[in-house]
Write a structure and sequence with these properties.
Strand order of the largest sheet: 14-26-25-24-15-22-23
Structural class: alpha+beta
Number of strands: 26
Oligomer: single chain
Helix content: 40-55%
C-alpha cells in the first residue's frame, strides 16, 4: 500500500469532507480516503504506484483543488496557514461590518428608534435610502462576501451544494428580491414591496465573524504541534578542524560534533561525547525532573541542557529524529477519523439537500396558509441560513486535534487517532511484567548478616567475587556495592559452579556465593535460616547465600523491583472500573508475588512470547483488551490487543506494534491515557449533541412551526448569528481539553 496526503483549503463543512472522500474513492486503485475538516487535508491509501495527477484532477472536478503535502514542505506550515486565514477573515469581517452598519441603521432604525422613519423620509427619502442600502449591500456581497458566491454557486450548479451554497442562496435571494423592489417596484404588488438588504448584508457579516472566531480558536487548538515544531533550534555550533562554526541544522550529518552551552536547547539527537550534566526532557516525557547524563548517554533534540557545557555526536537528522517522529505521529493521529464519525458522515451527506427542500417547503406552507410572499420569503431564507453542517463536521476532528495535542504535552503519543475511542471502551488492561510493572533489571533488595560480620564487609567480599561473573544477579550485587561506595575485597581463583553460584578464595577462607546447592557443596548448614529464605521466595525474591568455608555469613535476596508508580497505576485503573491482568514469562511464584503485591486481578505466568497473543485472546472474553509492554517479545500481544500501549523506554519493535506510546517509563501513563481518551470521547459526544440538537431544534423555529402566533420564528439575521455561534461553540468546547489532566 502507498499513501499520500493532500492539503485542501476549500473544505468548509461536513458535506465537503464527504464529497472529497467520494471523489477520491472513485479513482482506480484507491482503497481508503479520509478527509479531515479541521486539518483541511485528505489522506489517501492506494495499491501500488498511484497516478497522483489523476487524483488532483478528481479533486479539481469535485470543486476542491488539492496540493500534495510534500509540495508544500517549503511553504508556510499548517499553523502559519491558519494564522493567515484568521488575518484574512478578520479583514473581510471588518470591511463587511463597516459597509453593513449604515445599512442596518437605515433599515432597522425606523423600527427601533422613535422618529427615525420620519427623519429618513423627510431628509433623503425612503427610495433614496433603499438605493444607499442596495449599493452598500452589493459591495458587501462583491468583496468580503465574494467567497460564499465563488465557492457556493459553482457547487450548487454541480448539483453538490454545501454550506457556502446555503449562505450564497440566502443572501442572494434577499438581495435580488430587494433590488427588484428598488429598481422595478411596479412588478410586485404594493403589499409585497419590502426590502431585505439588511438581512443579506448582516448574514454575510455575521458568518464572517463566526468564521474568524472559529479560525482563531482552531489556531489555538493546533498549538501543541506548533510548540513541538518550535522546539528545534534553527542552527547549531559545530566543532570542525578549523574551529567552531555555526551551521543550519539542515546541513548537519550524523557524526558531527556539536557544542551545547548551559541552558541551550539540543539541536538534534545524539550521544554525549564529552562532559556530564542534567537534561530537561519534560518536552519528551512530561516529567519535570531533569535527567542526569554523562559520556555515552543519548540525548534528544528539543530537550534543554542544564548548567553544564557539553559536546555531543549527532546520531540522527531530519525526519529520523525523535522529535520529528513524534510530530509525524501526532499529525497522523490528528488526521484520523474515529468510528463515531460514521454517523456524522451519513447525516451530512444528505443534510444540505434536505435543508434546501425544507426551505422550499416552508415557503410553500406559508404561501398556502395565506401569510403573503414577504412572510413566506423571510421564513424560507431563515431556514436556509440557520441549518449549517459546519458544527457537525467540526465536532469530532477538533476534539481529536486538541486531545492528541494535549496528550503529546503529557508524553502520551496516540499514533492512531481511532485509538482514542477504542481505549475509552476497553474492559481489561493487560500488563507485561518485566520492564513495565518492574524496573527490568535485578537489584539487591535484602541483606541479612547471619554471623558477626558487618554488611560493608559482606558486600565487599561479594562484589570482589561477582566482579568476575557475567550473571545478571552478579551485576545487582556490584551495583549495590557501587551505590554504597564500598570497594571490592581482594578475591582470587574465582570458579563458577554451574546452576549453583560460584566459589573463590578470600583472605584466610574459601568464599561461597549462590543457592542452597552451593551451600550444600560448601558443607554449610543453612537449615536454621530456611524459613527466612522461604519467606523471601514467597515475595518473589531470589535468595542468595554466602558462606566462608562452612560457616553461613549472609542471606541476600535479589529481585526485579516493582516500579514505585505501578501500584498507583493499578489502583487508578480499578477506580476507572477496569480489570487488570499481568501476562509474563516469569515463574508462577514470582508472578503471583508481584501480582498479589499490586492487587492485580488475573495473572498469566510462564507464557512464551508467542503465547502472549493467545493470552490476549483469552482476556478478550472479559471484553475489549488494552495491552501494555516494552519488549520485542511483547510485540505480538501489542498488535493483537484492541489497543496496544508501548512504554517509550522500550524497544522500537514494541513501539511500532502499538497504537499509543507512553514516553515516560511510567505505568501511570496508562491510567492517564485512559482518562484522556474518556475526556476526548465525552467532549466529542457533547459537540455532536450540540450540533445535532441545534439543527433539530432551530430548523422548526426558523420555519415558524414552533411559534404560536404565526410568522417566521427567526429573522435571517438572527439565523445567521445562531449558525455562526454553533461552530464557534463546538471549537471552544473542544479547547477545554487543553486543561485535561491538570
Amino acid at each position: 500500500m502507498s499513501e499520500a496526503t493532500f492539503i485542501i483549503d476549500a473544505m468548509h463543512c461536513g458535506a465537503c469532507t464527504g464529497r472529497v472522500e467520494r471523489a477520491l474513492l472513485a479513482q482506480p486503485g484507491v482503497q481508503n480516503a479520509s478527509a479531515n475538516l479541521m486539518a483541511r487535508s485528505a489522506h489517501v491509501e492506494f495499491d501500488g504506484p498511484a497516478d497522483l495527477e489523476s487524483l488532483k484532477t478528481a479533486l479539481d472536478q469535485a470543486g476542491y483543488p488539492g496540493r500534495l503535502k510534500e509540495e508544500m514542505a517549503n511553504g508556510p506550515s499548517a499553523a502559519e496557514r491558519q494564522m493567515q486565514e484568521a488575518r484574512q477573515l478578520r479583514r473581510q469581517f471588518l470591511t463587511a461590518l463597516a459597509l453593513t452598519a449604515p445599512v442596518f441603521v437605515l433599515a432597522m432604525g425606523a423600527h427601533m428608534i422613535p422618529g427615525m422613519h420620519h427623519l429618513i423620509a423627510s431628509t433623503i427619502g425612503i427610495e433614496a435610502s433603499w438605493w444607499v442600502q442596495m449599493i452598500l449591500t452589493a459591495l458587501v456581497l462583491a468583496f468580503p462576501g465574494r467567497v460564499f458566491l465563488r465557492i457556493g454557486v459553482p457547487a450548487l450548479l454541480r448539483g453538490s451544494p454545501e454550506m457556502n451554497s446555503l449562505v450564497a442562496m440566502g443572501s442572494l435571494a434577499a438581495f435580488v428580491y430587494s433590488a427588484l423592489v428598488t429598481l422595478a417596484p411596479g412588478l410586485l404588488p404594493e403589499a409585497a414591496r419590502g426590502v431585505y438588504f439588511e438581512a443579506a448584508a448582516t448574514i454575510v457579516t455575521l458568518i464572517l465573524l463566526g468564521r474568524w472566531l472559529e479560525a482563531r480558536a482552531k489556531g489555538r487548538a493546533g498549538e501543541a504541534i506548533s510548540r513541538l515544531i518550535g522546539l528545534q533550534p534553527k542552527t547549531a555550533r559545530v566543532q570542525t578542524e578549523n574551529g567552531v562554526e555555526e551551521r543550519p541544522i539542515e546541513e548537519l550529518v550524523p557524526g558531527d560534533i556539536l557544542l551545547l552551552a548551559p541552558g541551550e536547547r539540543v539541536a538534534l539527537d545524539g550521544v554525549i561525547a564529552e562532559g556530564a550534566g542534567h537534561i530537561d526532557e519534560s518536552m519528551l516525557t512530561g516529567e519535570p525532573v531533569p535527567v542526569a547524563k554523562s559520556e555515552g548517554d543519548p540525548i534528544t533534540g528539543g530537550t534543554v541542557n542544564g548548567e553544564s557545557a557539553l559536546s555531543y555526536r549527532v546520531t540522527a537528522t531530519g525526519g529520523d529524529t525523535v522529535l520529528s517522529r513524534i510530530i509525524a505521529m501526532v499529525e497522523a493521529a490528528q488526521g484520523a477519523k474515529l468510528p463515531v464519525q460514521a454517523l456524522v458522515d451519513k447525516v451530512t451527506r444528505v443534510f444540505v439537500p434536505v435543508v434546501m427542500a425544507l426551505s422550499l417547503l416552508t415557503f410553500a406552507i406559508w404561501m398556502i396558509a395565506g401569510m403573503g410572499f414577504s412572510h413566506a420569503f423571510v421564513a424560507a431564507i431563515s431556514v436556509m441560513i440557520i441549518a449549517c453542517p459546519c458544527a457537525m463536521g467540526l465536532a469530532t476532528p477538533v476534539s481529536i486535534l486538541v486531545g492528541t495535542g494535549r496528550g503529546a504535552e503529557l508524553g502520551l503519543l496516540f499514533r492512531r487517532g481511532d485509538a482514542l475511542q477504542r481505549l475509552s471502551e476497553v474492559a481489561v488492561v493487560g500488563f507485561d511484567k518485566t520492564g513495565t510493572l518492574t524496573e527490568g533489571h535485578p537489584a539487591l533488595t535484602d541483606l541479612e548478616p547471619l554471623a558477626d560480620l558487618p554488611e560493608a564487609e559482606i558486600l565487599a567480599l561479594a562484589a570482589g567475587a561477582e566482579a568476575r561473573s557475567e550473571h545478571p544477579l552478579a551485576r545487582a550485587i556490584l551495583a549495590e556495592a557501587e551505590t554504597r561506595g564500598i570497594a571490592h575485597a581482594p578475591v582470587k581463583r574465582v570458579k563458577a559452579l554451574s546452576g549453583k553460584g560460584l566459589r573463590a578464595q578470600a583472605e584466610g577462607a574459601k568464599l561461597w556465593i549462590g543457592n542452597a546447592g552451593a551451600m550444600e557443596e560448601a558443607g554449610a548448614d543453612i537449615a536454621p535460616f530456611a524459613e527466612r529464605a522461604k519467606a523471601l521466595a514467597a515475595k518473589g525474591r531470589t535468595p542468595v547465600w554466602m558462606s566462608l568455608d562452612d560457616r553461613p555469613v549472609a542471606l541476600m535476596a535479589l529481585s526485579d523491583p516493582i516500579k514505585p508508580e505501578a501500584r498507583e497505576a493499578v489502583d487508578a485503573l480499578h477506580k476507572a472500573g477496569k480489570q487488570v491482568a499481568m501476562v509474563t514469562g516469569d515463574t508462577r511464584a514470582t508472578a503471583e508475588a508481584v501480582g498479589h503485591d499490586l492487587g492485580i486481578d488475573r495473572i498469566e505466568a510462564e507464557v512464551l512470547p508467542d503465547g502472549k497473543r493467545d493470552a490476549v485472546e483469552s482476556l478478550r472474553q472479559i471484553g475489549p483488551v488494552a495491552f501494555v509492554g516494552d519488549g520485542i517479545n511483547d510485540a505480538p500481544a501489542l498488535a493483537a490487543a484492541d489497543v496496544g500501549l508501548a512504554i517509550g523506554t522500550g524497544t522500537d519493535v514494541a513501539i511500532e506494534a502499538a497504537e499509543v506510546v507512553l514516553m515516560r517509563g511510567d505505568p501511570n501513563g496508562v491510567a492517564m491515557a485512559l482518562e484522556l481518551s474518556r475526556a476526548v470521547m465525552r467532549n466529542i459526544r457533547q459537540n455532536l449533541f450540540w450540533a445535532f440538537a441545534y439543527n433539530v431544534a432551530l430548523i422548526p423555529v426558523a420555519m415558524g412551526i414552533l411559534v404560536p402566533f404565526g410568522g417566521p420564528g427567526l429573522s435571517p439575521m438572527l439565523a445567521a448569528g445562531a449558525m455562526a455561534f454553533s461552530s464557534v461553540f463546538v471549537v471552544t468546547n473542544a479547547l477545554r481539553l487543553r486543561r485535561a489532566l491538570r
